[in-house]
Amino acid sequence: MGSTSEVGRRDLVKRAAALGILAVPAVGTLTSCATGGGGGSDDGIKNKGTTSAKNPLGVKNGAPLEAFIFKGGLGDQYAKDAEADYNKTYGVTVKHTGTQQIGPKLQPRFAGGNPPDLIDNSGADHLDMNKLSAQGQLQDLTALLDAPSLDDPKKKVRDTLYPSTVEKGKHKDTFDVFYYAFTVYGTWYSHKLLKEKGWAYPTSFDDMIKLCAEIKKAGIAPWTYPGKYPYYVHFNLFAQIAKIGGLDKWIAIDNLEPGAWTSNDAVKQVVGHYEELAAKGYFLEGSQGLTHIQSQTAWTRGKAAFIPNGSWVENEAAPTTPADFGMAVGALFDGGSGDKMPHGTLRAEPSEPFIVAKGGKNPLGGMELLRILVSKKHAQNFATKVKSLTAVQGATDGMQLSPGLASAAKAVKEGGKNLLMIQLQEWYPKLTDEKLGGLTSQLLTGELKAADWIKKAQQYADEVAKDSSVTKFHRAS
């Protein structure tokens, strides 16, 4: 998801493309164990108009449309721009709300049966999409996938997207979540700082520990993080476990399998690495009390060298980033010769989930606004305005990219087939953000040992696995 935090959100890819083009993740089958679905049939759909070549979804001209857009690291101007085109075509003015309070503002409306039509469900206070899908409150978006694209009517919308976008958005067999962005997660740094100091970006845990000692001697904190949202650290920590231990063992964690945390040697190595960083004082003092914005500001002002984050950070931190900062992202660190995945492995996956409320007044209009958003025009507008890639294949071809976005695109290209998607944070946010986030907070302040973090992480995962009130999902290896 976008940011204020983002939870980001998303396996392997079949191939990588040229600079500025994303690799295509080959995602394993994702299924929900819950009954119910994401909307199923369109029978009885509200405000249905007449379909035509120019209006393949049958949007009713003049029908009101309401959009709730998460206004975090990506802002909401890109959505307003798409809404302007919708307004011209369908003779209405979209009722637009930009907010970081998606869940608090919309939970009562879903309960009352009057949700808005299109929702960018991102941020710390997002809606529980798993529950909404299981309750049948999300519109099945298959009709959107099968509609002709705005750029080439001979192509369906689905043919313009990276396949991982479709797989990521499924609950059971229903496609009801449209992930619009493609986020690169990792360790972010200033190319200028490293170059000026003569430091090379570390390729391994051992190299990182050695470099941290040099950075600290130079009077700079090696790391900072948003202690108010400690799950930002999981963007790196979880992916490192998958990189070192192998995707199959990570999938066991995604699937809440017994002993998945405690029996995985990669977990011990990765969590132990963070324990060592904390023990040696390699985190900026006071990071445990910082928000995402405060930690990013400390980083862009040179108080810390590294920060765990997603590619939305370039846009979100723009107000405090020096023009010559040289924002960049690095690949995951090597653990040793026994790593299951090679150097260059990267976590990069669909993000920024959009949903259409089945109970909205104009769900067809909500889908049409998404169709506009995935046109090349608006995909490029998104890249320009918020410095982020989208789910649209080849949308940034030939564009002049900002430093952070160019670095992210380069990292994706170099990652090739070794792009990771992590589902745990998406499927079980209360487990990862609250329970494990609390453990990570204690780990990074030295209050908790790695062994205890792992033991408690397994305990919390087991509790979720046994909780019949939590919708369960399964990911094929």
User: What summary fits the major beta sheet?
Assistant: 10 strands, mixed
Share of helical residues = 25-40%
Count of alpha/pi helices = 18
Question: Average pLDDT across residues?
Answer: 89
Give me the count of strands.
16
* Shape label: globular
Class from secondary-structure proportions: alpha/beta
Unreliable runs = 1-42
Strand fraction band?
15-25%
Rg: 22 Å
Distance between the termini: 24 Å
Summarize this structure briefly.
It is found in: Cell envelope. The protein is built from 18 helices and 16 strands.
Features:
single chain; 477 residues; alpha/beta; 10-stranded mixed sheet; two-stranded antiparallel ribbon; 18 helices; 38% helix; disordered N terminus
What can you see in these coordinates?
With 477 residues, the protein is an alpha/beta fold. The chain is 38% helix and 15% strand. The protein has helices at residues 77-90, 102-112, 129-134, 142-146, 163-168, 191-197, 205-217, 234-245, 247-254, 265-279, 292-300, 313-316, 363-373, 376-386, 403-415, 424-427, 429-444, 450-466, and strands spanning 12-15, 24-26, 30-32, 66-70, 95-99, 118-120, 170-171, 174-175, 178-190, 221-223, 304-310, 327-330, 346-356, 389-390, 419-420, 473-475. The strands form four sheets. Strands 4, 5, 6, 9, 10, 11, 12, 13, 14 and 15 form a ten-stranded mixed β-sheet that branches. Strands 1-2 form a two-stranded antiparallel sheet. A two-stranded antiparallel sheet has the order 3-16. Strand 4 (66-70), helix 1 (77-90) and strand 5 form a beta-alpha-beta unit. The longest helix is centred in the last third of the chain and has 17 residues, at 450-466. The chain is globular. The chain starts with 11 loop residues before the first strand and ends with a strand. Mean pLDDT is 89; it is low at 1-42.
